[in-house]
Design a protein that fits this description.
The structure is a single chain. The protein has 544 residues and is an alpha/beta fold. The chain contains 18 helices and 15 strands. It has helices spanning 3-44, 56-64, 84-94, 117-125, 145-155, 180-188, 207-218, 221-228, 245-253, 279-287, 302-309, 312-329, 346-362, 385-391, 416-429, 460-469, 501-513, 530-543; strands spanning 235-239, 259-261, 263-267, 273-275, 291-297, 333-337, 366-371, 394-398, 435-440, 442-448, 453-459, 473-477, 482-489, 492-497, 518-522. The strands form 2 sheets. An 8-stranded parallel beta barrel has the order 1-2-5-6-7-8-9-15, surrounded by 5 helices. The chain has a 5-stranded antiparallel beta sheet with strand order 11-10-14-13-12. β13 (482-489) and β14 (492-497) form a beta hairpin. α17 (501-513) runs parallel beside α18 (530-543). The protein is elongated, with a radius of gyration of 32 Å.
Amino acid sequence: MNKSGVFIVRFMTFYKVITLFIISTIIIGSNITNVVKAETLNNKYPFDDIANSYAKKEIVNLAKLNLINGRGNRKFEPLQPVTRAEFITMIDRMLQLEPVNNEIASFIDVRKSKWYYGWVQAGFNLGIIDGTSPGVFQPNELISRQEAAALIARAVKIVEVDKAGTPTFTDSDEIASWATSYVMMIQKNKLMTGNGNKFRPNADITRQETAVVLNRIVESAFGVKVMDGQQDTTIQMGWQYDSTTAEFIDHVNHSNINTLTPRWFFLKDKGRISDQVDPELISYAKKYNKKIWAMFGNLFDADLTHTVLTNSVMRNSVVQQITTYVQKYNLDGINVDFENVKPVDKIYFTAFIIELAEALHEVNAVLSVDVSPDLGTDWTEAFDYVKLGKAADYIVLMGYDEHWNGSPKAGSVSSLPWLERALNKLLIAVPADKIIAALPLYTRDWYDSSLAVLSEELTLEQQSARILTSNIKLSWNDTLGQYLATYTKQGTQHRIWLEESRSFTLKDQMINSKNIAGNAYWYTGAETSDIWVALRNSDKFSSY
Protein backbone atom coordinates (compact mmCIF):
# COMPACT_ATOMS: atom_id res chain seq x y z
CA MET A 1 0.00 0.00 0.00
CA ASN A 2 1.30 3.42 -0.90
CA LYS A 3 1.53 6.39 1.47
CA SER A 4 -1.74 7.93 0.27
CA GLY A 5 -3.61 4.68 0.99
CA VAL A 6 -2.22 4.49 4.49
CA PHE A 7 -3.25 8.08 5.10
CA ILE A 8 -6.81 7.40 3.95
CA VAL A 9 -7.13 4.34 6.24
CA ARG A 10 -5.81 6.25 9.23
CA PHE A 11 -8.14 9.17 8.49
CA MET A 12 -11.18 6.88 8.30
CA THR A 13 -10.27 5.23 11.61
CA PHE A 14 -9.87 8.64 13.29
CA TYR A 15 -13.23 9.74 11.86
CA LYS A 16 -14.98 6.68 13.31
CA VAL A 17 -13.45 7.29 16.73
CA ILE A 18 -14.54 10.94 16.72
CA THR A 19 -18.01 9.98 15.54
CA LEU A 20 -18.39 7.34 18.29
CA PHE A 21 -17.15 9.83 20.88
CA ILE A 22 -19.71 12.44 19.83
CA ILE A 23 -22.54 9.90 19.82
CA SER A 24 -21.53 8.59 23.27
CA THR A 25 -21.35 12.13 24.62
CA ILE A 26 -24.85 12.86 23.37
CA ILE A 27 -26.24 9.65 24.90
CA ILE A 28 -24.50 10.17 28.23
CA GLY A 29 -25.55 13.79 28.30
CA SER A 30 -29.11 12.79 27.63
CA ASN A 31 -29.01 10.23 30.45
CA ILE A 32 -27.48 12.79 32.82
CA THR A 33 -30.24 15.22 31.91
CA ASN A 34 -32.86 12.56 32.63
CA VAL A 35 -31.22 11.73 35.96
CA VAL A 36 -31.12 15.41 36.90
CA LYS A 37 -34.76 15.78 35.96
CA ALA A 38 -35.66 12.71 38.03
CA GLU A 39 -33.66 13.96 41.01
CA THR A 40 -35.25 17.38 40.67
CA LEU A 41 -38.69 15.77 40.66
CA ASN A 42 -37.79 13.62 43.66
CA ASN A 43 -36.49 16.62 45.56
CA LYS A 44 -39.67 18.55 44.83
CA TYR A 45 -41.89 16.03 46.62
CA PRO A 46 -41.23 13.94 49.75
CA PHE A 47 -42.78 10.93 47.99
CA ASP A 48 -42.31 9.63 44.45
CA ASP A 49 -45.95 8.75 43.79
CA ILE A 50 -47.86 11.97 44.53
CA ALA A 51 -47.08 14.09 41.44
CA ASN A 52 -50.47 13.27 39.91
CA SER A 53 -52.44 13.44 43.18
CA TYR A 54 -54.89 16.31 43.63
CA ALA A 55 -53.69 16.38 47.25
CA LYS A 56 -49.95 16.74 46.54
CA LYS A 57 -49.83 20.25 47.99
CA GLU A 58 -51.51 19.09 51.22
CA ILE A 59 -49.36 15.97 51.43
CA VAL A 60 -46.16 18.01 51.07
CA ASN A 61 -47.27 20.47 53.75
CA LEU A 62 -48.22 17.76 56.24
CA ALA A 63 -45.00 15.88 55.58
CA LYS A 64 -42.99 19.05 56.32
CA LEU A 65 -44.86 19.29 59.62
CA ASN A 66 -44.09 15.61 60.37
CA LEU A 67 -47.79 14.87 60.67
CA ILE A 68 -47.89 12.09 58.06
CA ASN A 69 -45.54 9.35 56.92
CA GLY A 70 -45.25 7.27 53.78
CA ARG A 71 -45.46 3.51 53.53
CA GLY A 72 -41.81 2.92 52.72
CA ASN A 73 -39.55 3.32 49.66
CA ARG A 74 -40.66 6.94 49.26
CA LYS A 75 -44.20 5.80 48.56
CA PHE A 76 -47.23 7.57 49.99
CA GLU A 77 -49.87 5.50 48.14
CA PRO A 78 -52.41 8.34 47.93
CA LEU A 79 -55.22 6.19 46.52
CA GLN A 80 -54.97 3.51 49.18
CA PRO A 81 -57.50 3.40 52.07
CA VAL A 82 -56.62 4.17 55.68
CA THR A 83 -56.87 1.78 58.63
CA ARG A 84 -58.38 2.74 61.97
CA ALA A 85 -54.95 2.62 63.62
CA GLU A 86 -53.39 4.81 60.92
CA PHE A 87 -56.19 7.38 61.08
CA ILE A 88 -56.09 7.91 64.85
CA THR A 89 -52.29 8.14 64.66
CA MET A 90 -52.53 10.97 62.13
CA ILE A 91 -55.21 12.70 64.23
CA ASP A 92 -53.04 12.42 67.36
CA ARG A 93 -50.03 13.85 65.57
CA MET A 94 -52.09 16.70 64.19
CA LEU A 95 -53.19 17.49 67.76
CA GLN A 96 -49.54 17.42 68.93
CA LEU A 97 -50.32 14.54 71.32
CA GLU A 98 -47.87 11.95 72.61
CA PRO A 99 -48.42 8.19 72.39
CA VAL A 100 -49.48 6.83 75.79
CA ASN A 101 -48.38 3.33 76.74
CA ASN A 102 -51.25 2.72 79.16
CA GLU A 103 -50.42 0.19 81.84
CA ILE A 104 -53.97 -1.12 81.46
CA ALA A 105 -54.69 -2.05 77.84
CA SER A 106 -58.15 -0.93 76.76
CA PHE A 107 -58.54 -3.40 73.87
CA ILE A 108 -57.79 -7.10 73.56
CA ASP A 109 -56.71 -6.70 69.93
CA VAL A 110 -54.34 -3.75 70.45
CA ARG A 111 -51.23 -5.27 71.92
CA LYS A 112 -48.54 -3.26 73.65
CA SER A 113 -45.95 -4.57 71.19
CA LYS A 114 -47.69 -2.97 68.20
CA TRP A 115 -46.43 0.34 66.76
CA TYR A 116 -49.88 1.91 67.11
CA TYR A 117 -50.57 0.90 70.75
CA GLY A 118 -49.66 4.27 72.29
CA TRP A 119 -51.44 6.25 69.56
CA VAL A 120 -54.68 4.29 69.95
CA GLN A 121 -54.57 4.68 73.74
CA ALA A 122 -53.86 8.41 73.48
CA GLY A 123 -56.94 8.94 71.30
CA PHE A 124 -59.09 6.61 73.37
CA ASN A 125 -58.13 8.22 76.69
CA LEU A 126 -59.42 11.56 75.39
CA GLY A 127 -62.59 10.12 73.86
CA ILE A 128 -61.60 10.94 70.29
CA ILE A 129 -61.95 7.36 69.14
CA ASP A 130 -63.83 4.36 70.52
CA GLY A 131 -63.80 0.64 69.96
CA THR A 132 -66.03 -1.18 67.51
CA SER A 133 -67.44 -3.10 70.48
CA PRO A 134 -66.53 -3.28 74.19
CA GLY A 135 -62.85 -4.16 74.48
CA VAL A 136 -62.39 -4.55 70.71
CA PHE A 137 -60.76 -1.95 68.43
CA GLN A 138 -60.03 -3.68 65.07
CA PRO A 139 -56.92 -1.60 64.33
CA ASN A 140 -56.39 -2.96 60.82
CA GLU A 141 -59.96 -2.47 59.65
CA LEU A 142 -60.41 0.27 57.04
CA ILE A 143 -62.11 3.41 58.27
CA SER A 144 -65.15 4.77 56.44
CA ARG A 145 -65.77 8.40 55.61
CA GLN A 146 -68.55 8.70 58.18
CA GLU A 147 -66.36 7.13 60.88
CA ALA A 148 -63.60 9.58 59.93
CA ALA A 149 -66.10 12.45 60.18
CA ALA A 150 -66.93 11.42 63.76
CA LEU A 151 -63.27 11.33 64.80
CA ILE A 152 -62.53 14.68 63.20
CA ALA A 153 -65.53 16.33 64.84
CA ARG A 154 -64.45 15.08 68.27
CA ALA A 155 -60.82 16.00 67.66
CA VAL A 156 -61.59 19.62 66.74
CA LYS A 157 -64.41 19.83 69.28
CA ILE A 158 -67.06 21.11 66.88
CA VAL A 159 -69.71 18.52 67.65
CA GLU A 160 -70.38 20.19 71.00
CA VAL A 161 -71.26 23.48 69.31
CA ASP A 162 -74.36 22.43 67.41
CA LYS A 163 -75.90 19.03 66.74
CA ALA A 164 -79.07 20.37 65.12
CA GLY A 165 -79.90 19.95 61.44
CA THR A 166 -79.05 17.33 58.83
CA PRO A 167 -76.46 17.06 56.06
CA THR A 168 -77.52 18.27 52.61
CA PHE A 169 -75.82 15.57 50.54
CA THR A 170 -77.96 13.68 48.02
CA ASP A 171 -77.01 10.40 49.69
CA SER A 172 -77.72 11.61 53.24
CA ASP A 173 -80.15 8.72 53.68
CA GLU A 174 -77.16 6.37 53.57
CA ILE A 175 -75.51 8.05 56.57
CA ALA A 176 -75.89 6.02 59.78
CA SER A 177 -78.06 7.63 62.43
CA TRP A 178 -75.15 7.77 64.90
CA ALA A 179 -73.03 9.65 62.33
CA THR A 180 -75.60 12.16 61.08
CA SER A 181 -74.71 14.99 63.46
CA TYR A 182 -70.99 14.46 62.92
CA VAL A 183 -71.28 14.59 59.13
CA MET A 184 -73.54 17.64 59.34
CA MET A 185 -71.03 19.55 61.48
CA ILE A 186 -68.11 18.49 59.28
CA GLN A 187 -70.01 19.74 56.23
CA LYS A 188 -71.01 22.98 57.94
CA ASN A 189 -67.40 23.69 58.87
CA LYS A 190 -66.19 22.74 55.36
CA LEU A 191 -63.73 20.15 56.61
CA MET A 192 -65.11 17.30 54.49
CA THR A 193 -66.99 17.82 51.24
CA GLY A 194 -68.80 15.46 48.93
CA ASN A 195 -68.08 14.45 45.36
CA GLY A 196 -70.88 15.58 43.05
CA ASN A 197 -72.89 16.44 46.17
CA LYS A 198 -72.52 12.89 47.42
CA PHE A 199 -70.80 12.18 50.73
CA ARG A 200 -70.29 8.41 50.19
CA PRO A 201 -70.50 7.70 53.95
CA ASN A 202 -69.69 4.01 53.72
CA ALA A 203 -66.76 4.38 51.33
CA ASP A 204 -63.28 3.94 52.77
CA ILE A 205 -61.47 7.24 53.16
CA THR A 206 -58.24 7.34 51.15
CA ARG A 207 -54.86 8.62 52.20
CA GLN A 208 -55.06 11.63 49.91
CA GLU A 209 -58.57 12.47 51.15
CA THR A 210 -57.26 12.26 54.71
CA ALA A 211 -54.38 14.59 53.84
CA VAL A 212 -56.80 17.20 52.44
CA VAL A 213 -58.97 17.12 55.57
CA LEU A 214 -56.04 17.27 57.99
CA ASN A 215 -54.48 20.15 56.09
CA ARG A 216 -57.76 22.08 56.24
CA ILE A 217 -57.74 21.64 60.01
CA VAL A 218 -54.09 22.70 60.28
CA GLU A 219 -54.82 25.89 58.33
CA SER A 220 -57.98 26.70 60.32
CA ALA A 221 -58.08 28.92 63.42
CA PHE A 222 -58.23 25.74 65.54
CA GLY A 223 -55.19 24.33 63.75
CA VAL A 224 -53.21 27.53 64.16
CA LYS A 225 -53.79 27.36 67.91
CA VAL A 226 -52.75 23.71 67.98
CA MET A 227 -49.59 24.25 65.93
CA ASP A 228 -48.68 27.30 68.02
CA GLY A 229 -48.26 24.98 70.98
CA GLN A 230 -48.90 27.69 73.57
CA GLN A 231 -50.70 26.72 76.75
CA ASP A 232 -50.94 28.19 80.21
CA THR A 233 -48.65 26.69 82.84
CA THR A 234 -50.59 25.40 85.83
CA ILE A 235 -49.37 24.35 89.25
CA GLN A 236 -48.32 20.71 89.33
CA MET A 237 -47.58 19.98 92.96
CA GLY A 238 -46.08 16.74 94.24
CA TRP A 239 -45.64 15.59 97.82
CA GLN A 240 -42.53 13.70 98.84
CA TYR A 241 -43.21 10.55 100.84
CA ASP A 242 -41.36 7.32 101.54
CA SER A 243 -38.36 8.32 99.43
CA THR A 244 -34.88 9.74 99.87
CA THR A 245 -34.02 13.12 98.39
CA ALA A 246 -32.17 11.43 95.51
CA GLU A 247 -35.15 9.17 94.82
CA PHE A 248 -37.56 12.10 94.99
CA ILE A 249 -35.47 14.11 92.54
CA ASP A 250 -35.43 11.18 90.15
CA HIS A 251 -39.22 10.86 90.40
CA VAL A 252 -39.65 14.58 89.74
CA ASN A 253 -37.34 14.42 86.73
CA HIS A 254 -39.65 11.85 85.15
CA SER A 255 -42.86 13.70 85.99
CA ASN A 256 -44.79 16.90 85.26
CA ILE A 257 -44.13 18.27 88.75
CA ASN A 258 -43.08 21.92 88.97
CA THR A 259 -43.85 22.53 92.66
CA LEU A 260 -42.09 20.32 95.20
CA THR A 261 -43.65 19.62 98.59
CA PRO A 262 -41.21 17.80 100.85
CA ARG A 263 -42.49 16.88 104.32
CA TRP A 264 -39.93 18.94 106.25
CA PHE A 265 -41.73 20.58 109.18
CA PHE A 266 -43.88 18.98 111.88
CA LEU A 267 -45.58 20.34 114.99
CA LYS A 268 -44.03 19.17 118.25
CA ASP A 269 -44.87 19.64 121.93
CA LYS A 270 -44.96 23.18 123.38
CA GLY A 271 -45.24 24.62 119.88
CA ARG A 272 -41.80 23.58 118.71
CA ILE A 273 -41.29 22.68 115.04
CA SER A 274 -39.01 19.94 113.76
CA ASP A 275 -36.64 20.90 110.96
CA GLN A 276 -35.85 18.18 108.39
CA VAL A 277 -34.77 20.42 105.50
CA ASP A 278 -32.38 18.88 102.97
CA PRO A 279 -30.18 21.49 101.22
CA GLU A 280 -29.66 19.10 98.30
CA LEU A 281 -33.30 19.46 97.27
CA ILE A 282 -33.15 23.25 97.58
CA SER A 283 -30.12 23.36 95.28
CA TYR A 284 -31.86 21.11 92.78
CA ALA A 285 -35.01 23.23 92.79
CA LYS A 286 -33.11 26.46 92.20
CA LYS A 287 -31.04 24.93 89.40
CA TYR A 288 -34.05 23.54 87.52
CA ASN A 289 -36.52 26.35 88.24
CA LYS A 290 -38.80 24.36 90.54
CA LYS A 291 -40.77 25.86 93.41
CA ILE A 292 -40.55 24.46 96.94
CA TRP A 293 -43.63 24.66 99.15
CA ALA A 294 -42.41 22.75 102.19
CA MET A 295 -45.11 20.87 104.06
CA PHE A 296 -45.88 21.72 107.69
CA GLY A 297 -47.98 18.99 109.31
CA ASN A 298 -49.54 18.07 112.63
CA LEU A 299 -49.17 14.28 112.24
CA PHE A 300 -52.93 13.90 112.87
CA ASP A 301 -52.37 14.74 116.55
CA ALA A 302 -55.66 16.39 117.55
CA ASP A 303 -54.73 16.99 121.19
CA LEU A 304 -51.37 18.63 120.45
CA THR A 305 -52.98 20.74 117.74
CA HIS A 306 -55.67 21.87 120.18
CA THR A 307 -53.07 22.78 122.81
CA VAL A 308 -51.00 24.88 120.41
CA LEU A 309 -53.79 26.57 118.45
CA THR A 310 -55.76 27.65 121.52
CA ASN A 311 -52.70 29.24 123.12
CA SER A 312 -52.06 32.58 121.39
CA VAL A 313 -48.45 32.70 122.59
CA MET A 314 -47.60 29.25 121.20
CA ARG A 315 -49.57 29.95 118.03
CA ASN A 316 -47.60 33.15 117.47
CA SER A 317 -44.36 31.28 118.14
CA VAL A 318 -45.28 28.72 115.46
CA VAL A 319 -45.93 31.49 112.94
CA GLN A 320 -42.57 33.10 113.75
CA GLN A 321 -40.68 29.80 113.51
CA ILE A 322 -42.18 28.91 110.13
CA THR A 323 -41.50 32.38 108.75
CA THR A 324 -37.90 32.20 109.99
CA TYR A 325 -37.40 28.83 108.28
CA VAL A 326 -38.81 30.21 105.02
CA GLN A 327 -36.30 33.07 105.13
CA LYS A 328 -33.41 30.88 106.29
CA TYR A 329 -33.81 28.38 103.45
CA ASN A 330 -35.18 30.83 100.87
CA LEU A 331 -38.32 28.73 100.38
CA ASP A 332 -41.05 29.69 97.93
CA GLY A 333 -43.88 28.75 100.24
CA ILE A 334 -45.45 26.55 102.89
CA ASN A 335 -48.09 23.85 102.54
CA VAL A 336 -50.08 23.42 105.78
CA ASP A 337 -51.36 19.89 106.29
CA PHE A 338 -53.30 19.85 109.57
CA GLU A 339 -55.66 16.89 109.68
CA ASN A 340 -57.87 15.44 112.41
CA VAL A 341 -58.43 18.91 113.86
CA LYS A 342 -61.19 19.03 116.48
CA PRO A 343 -64.40 20.85 115.47
CA VAL A 344 -64.07 23.08 118.57
CA ASP A 345 -60.77 24.36 117.16
CA LYS A 346 -62.32 25.78 114.00
CA ILE A 347 -61.92 29.44 114.98
CA TYR A 348 -58.38 28.86 116.26
CA PHE A 349 -57.26 27.03 113.11
CA THR A 350 -58.75 29.82 110.99
CA ALA A 351 -56.96 32.45 113.10
CA PHE A 352 -53.70 30.55 112.74
CA ILE A 353 -53.99 30.44 108.93
CA ILE A 354 -54.81 34.16 108.77
CA GLU A 355 -51.81 35.02 110.95
CA LEU A 356 -49.46 32.70 109.05
CA ALA A 357 -50.62 34.05 105.67
CA GLU A 358 -49.91 37.63 106.76
CA ALA A 359 -46.43 36.71 107.99
CA LEU A 360 -45.53 34.72 104.88
CA HIS A 361 -46.79 37.40 102.53
CA GLU A 362 -44.48 39.90 104.21
CA VAL A 363 -41.52 37.76 103.12
CA ASN A 364 -43.00 37.10 99.64
CA ALA A 365 -43.83 33.46 100.35
CA VAL A 366 -46.92 31.50 99.30
CA LEU A 367 -49.31 29.71 101.67
CA SER A 368 -51.33 26.69 100.60
CA VAL A 369 -53.68 24.80 102.92
CA ASP A 370 -54.78 21.18 102.52
CA VAL A 371 -58.48 20.45 103.09
CA SER A 372 -60.66 17.38 102.76
CA PRO A 373 -63.93 17.50 100.80
CA ASP A 374 -66.78 19.07 102.76
CA LEU A 375 -68.68 15.93 103.71
CA GLY A 376 -70.52 17.34 106.68
CA THR A 377 -68.63 15.18 109.19
CA ASP A 378 -66.45 15.91 112.21
CA TRP A 379 -63.39 15.27 110.04
CA THR A 380 -63.98 18.49 108.06
CA GLU A 381 -65.92 20.53 110.63
CA ALA A 382 -62.78 22.47 111.58
CA PHE A 383 -62.42 23.93 108.06
CA ASP A 384 -63.98 27.32 107.44
CA TYR A 385 -63.58 27.05 103.69
CA VAL A 386 -64.61 30.63 102.94
CA LYS A 387 -62.24 32.27 105.43
CA LEU A 388 -59.39 29.90 104.63
CA GLY A 389 -59.85 30.68 100.95
CA LYS A 390 -59.62 34.41 101.61
CA ALA A 391 -56.48 34.17 103.73
CA ALA A 392 -54.42 31.54 101.92
CA ASP A 393 -53.04 31.81 98.39
CA TYR A 394 -54.23 28.30 97.53
CA ILE A 395 -56.58 25.70 98.95
CA VAL A 396 -55.55 22.14 98.10
CA LEU A 397 -58.55 19.81 97.87
CA MET A 398 -57.44 16.32 98.86
CA GLY A 399 -59.58 14.51 96.32
CA TYR A 400 -59.18 11.00 97.66
CA ASP A 401 -60.24 8.63 100.43
CA GLU A 402 -63.81 8.49 99.18
CA HIS A 403 -63.48 4.99 100.62
CA TRP A 404 -60.69 4.83 103.15
CA ASN A 405 -58.83 2.27 105.24
CA GLY A 406 -61.44 1.10 107.74
CA SER A 407 -64.37 2.19 105.57
CA PRO A 408 -67.46 0.07 106.25
CA LYS A 409 -67.98 -0.26 102.51
CA ALA A 410 -65.62 -1.16 99.69
CA GLY A 411 -65.29 1.28 96.82
CA SER A 412 -63.24 3.72 94.83
CA VAL A 413 -60.58 5.91 96.40
CA SER A 414 -61.66 8.74 94.09
CA SER A 415 -64.46 8.17 91.60
CA LEU A 416 -65.12 10.81 88.96
CA PRO A 417 -68.60 11.89 90.16
CA TRP A 418 -67.49 12.02 93.80
CA LEU A 419 -64.48 14.16 92.95
CA GLU A 420 -66.56 16.52 90.83
CA ARG A 421 -69.16 16.95 93.61
CA ALA A 422 -66.38 17.75 96.09
CA LEU A 423 -64.78 20.24 93.71
CA ASN A 424 -68.07 21.92 92.86
CA LYS A 425 -68.86 22.39 96.55
CA LEU A 426 -65.44 23.93 97.22
CA LEU A 427 -65.91 26.27 94.27
CA ILE A 428 -68.90 27.78 96.05
CA ALA A 429 -66.63 28.91 98.88
CA VAL A 430 -63.27 29.48 97.19
CA PRO A 431 -62.39 31.20 93.86
CA ALA A 432 -61.34 28.80 91.10
CA ASP A 433 -57.92 30.41 90.67
CA LYS A 434 -57.12 29.60 94.31
CA ILE A 435 -57.98 25.89 94.13
CA ILE A 436 -55.59 22.99 93.53
CA ALA A 437 -57.11 19.51 93.10
CA ALA A 438 -55.04 16.68 94.58
CA LEU A 439 -55.30 13.25 92.94
CA PRO A 440 -54.35 9.83 94.35
CA LEU A 441 -51.43 7.88 92.94
CA TYR A 442 -52.68 4.89 94.91
CA THR A 443 -55.72 2.67 95.24
CA ARG A 444 -56.99 -0.14 97.47
CA ASP A 445 -57.38 -3.89 97.12
CA TRP A 446 -60.62 -4.73 98.94
CA TYR A 447 -61.67 -8.10 100.36
CA ASP A 448 -64.12 -9.41 102.95
CA SER A 449 -63.22 -11.04 106.22
CA SER A 450 -65.55 -12.72 108.70
CA LEU A 451 -65.74 -9.50 110.73
CA ALA A 452 -65.38 -6.57 108.33
CA VAL A 453 -64.45 -5.25 104.92
CA LEU A 454 -60.68 -4.95 104.73
CA SER A 455 -58.33 -3.31 102.27
CA GLU A 456 -54.67 -3.07 101.35
CA GLU A 457 -53.27 0.18 99.99
CA LEU A 458 -51.47 -0.18 96.65
CA THR A 459 -49.30 2.26 94.76
CA LEU A 460 -50.07 2.34 91.05
CA GLU A 461 -46.88 0.36 90.41
CA GLN A 462 -48.07 -2.29 92.88
CA GLN A 463 -51.49 -2.25 91.24
CA SER A 464 -49.92 -3.02 87.84
CA ALA A 465 -47.85 -5.85 89.30
CA ARG A 466 -50.92 -7.37 90.93
CA ILE A 467 -52.85 -7.28 87.67
CA LEU A 468 -50.01 -9.08 85.89
CA THR A 469 -49.70 -11.81 88.53
CA SER A 470 -53.40 -12.43 89.21
CA ASN A 471 -56.17 -13.80 87.04
CA ILE A 472 -57.86 -10.42 86.82
CA LYS A 473 -61.23 -9.72 85.24
CA LEU A 474 -61.70 -6.10 84.14
CA SER A 475 -64.92 -4.20 83.55
CA TRP A 476 -65.30 -0.49 82.79
CA ASN A 477 -67.79 1.56 84.81
CA ASP A 478 -68.91 4.61 82.80
CA THR A 479 -70.57 6.21 85.82
CA LEU A 480 -67.49 6.05 88.04
CA GLY A 481 -65.03 6.60 85.20
CA GLN A 482 -62.92 3.62 86.31
CA TYR A 483 -62.14 -0.02 85.69
CA LEU A 484 -63.23 -2.49 88.35
CA ALA A 485 -60.76 -5.37 88.64
CA THR A 486 -61.87 -8.56 90.35
CA TYR A 487 -59.98 -11.73 91.17
CA THR A 488 -60.11 -14.60 93.65
CA LYS A 489 -57.28 -15.53 95.99
CA GLN A 490 -57.50 -18.51 98.34
CA GLY A 491 -61.25 -18.56 97.95
CA THR A 492 -61.67 -14.85 98.78
CA GLN A 493 -62.89 -12.36 96.20
CA HIS A 494 -60.84 -9.19 95.78
CA ARG A 495 -61.91 -5.93 94.15
CA ILE A 496 -59.78 -2.99 93.00
CA TRP A 497 -61.19 0.23 91.59
CA LEU A 498 -58.27 1.07 89.34
CA GLU A 499 -56.52 4.40 88.98
CA GLU A 500 -54.71 4.51 85.63
CA SER A 501 -54.22 6.67 82.56
CA ARG A 502 -57.79 6.51 81.33
CA SER A 503 -59.39 7.32 84.69
CA PHE A 504 -56.81 10.04 85.35
CA THR A 505 -57.49 11.61 81.96
CA LEU A 506 -61.22 11.81 82.73
CA LYS A 507 -60.54 13.39 86.12
CA ASP A 508 -58.07 15.84 84.63
CA GLN A 509 -60.45 16.81 81.82
CA MET A 510 -63.15 17.53 84.41
CA ILE A 511 -60.70 19.52 86.56
CA ASN A 512 -59.52 21.54 83.55
CA SER A 513 -63.11 22.44 82.71
CA LYS A 514 -63.32 24.25 86.09
CA ASN A 515 -60.34 26.51 85.26
CA ILE A 516 -58.69 25.98 88.64
CA ALA A 517 -55.06 26.70 89.52
CA GLY A 518 -53.69 23.20 89.01
CA ASN A 519 -53.22 19.69 90.35
CA ALA A 520 -51.38 18.00 93.20
CA TYR A 521 -50.42 14.34 93.60
CA TRP A 522 -50.17 12.09 96.63
CA TYR A 523 -47.54 10.95 96.37
CA THR A 524 -44.77 11.45 93.81
CA GLY A 525 -43.11 8.14 92.94
CA ALA A 526 -46.16 5.94 93.49
CA GLU A 527 -47.29 6.31 89.86
CA THR A 528 -46.53 4.49 86.63
CA SER A 529 -44.79 6.56 83.96
CA ASP A 530 -47.73 6.56 81.52
CA ILE A 531 -49.76 8.71 83.93
CA TRP A 532 -47.62 11.78 83.22
CA VAL A 533 -47.88 11.40 79.45
CA ALA A 534 -51.66 10.99 79.68
CA LEU A 535 -51.92 14.12 81.84
CA ARG A 536 -49.76 16.15 79.44
CA ASN A 537 -52.05 15.11 76.60
CA SER A 538 -55.10 15.99 78.66
CA ASP A 539 -53.82 19.46 79.52
CA LYS A 540 -52.80 20.09 75.92
CA PHE A 541 -56.16 18.93 74.52
CA SER A 542 -58.01 21.02 77.11
CA SER A 543 -56.10 24.11 75.99
CA TYR A 544 -57.44 23.88 72.41
